[in-house]
Each structure stands twice: as structure tokens, then as C-alpha cells.
Design goal:
Structural class: alpha+beta
Radius of gyration: 15 Å
Strand order of the largest sheet: 2-3-1-4
Order of helices and strands: EHHEEHHE
Strand content: 25-35%
Number of strands: 4
Helix content: 25-40%
Length: about 110
Amino acid sequence: MAITVNLRYTGKNGNAKKFAEEMTSSGTVNLIRAEEGNLRYEYYISMEDHETVLLIDSWVDQKAIDDHHASPMMKTIAEFREKYDLHMTVERYVSDESDTSGDDRFIRK
């Protein structure tokens, strides 16, 4: 069971994109990806709202998320969020282990 958290960062004057760029250029993203239990940590820019960036953040379980939240990187992330005056919405998803073979005909590989 994996847990995926979608975080939408919204700001003004391109600040959400600047935040994601600094998270990447500072090496923070690579440090998070290297944490035990991290499955995915990727930023995406909205085609419809240029002031919003989506972070897809996946972990093997709640313990891995809790360990991440207790890590020194959270201070860095909080400082960057404050620096760029970002606001957030959060959605959490738990992986579905159902048989998805019926979906294959709709997926072009």
C-alpha cells in the first residue's frame, strides 16, 4: 500500500514555479527522493492556472511520511513556502490493489 499526496502550491507573480525551481536547485528535492520510503517526488505546472504548481509526493506508508515530516528538510521546505508566500491544498490517496488489467486497452505504451 502506497500513500500519494497531491499538494497544490499557489502564489502570485510566478512564485509557485520559483519555489519548485529553488527546491530543485538547492538539492532539497534530491534529498527528499533519497529518503527511505519515498517513491515519487515530482512537480508539475498547471496548464490552466499559471500560478499553481502540483507536487505529487508518494511514500510506501504513513511511517515514511511521518519520518519525512520529522526530518530537517521540513524546516527548509517551510522556509521556502514562507519566502514565496505560498498557499496549499492537499489531497491524500491510498493505492488500490485491484486488478487493473481491464484498463490496459485504454493505455498507449
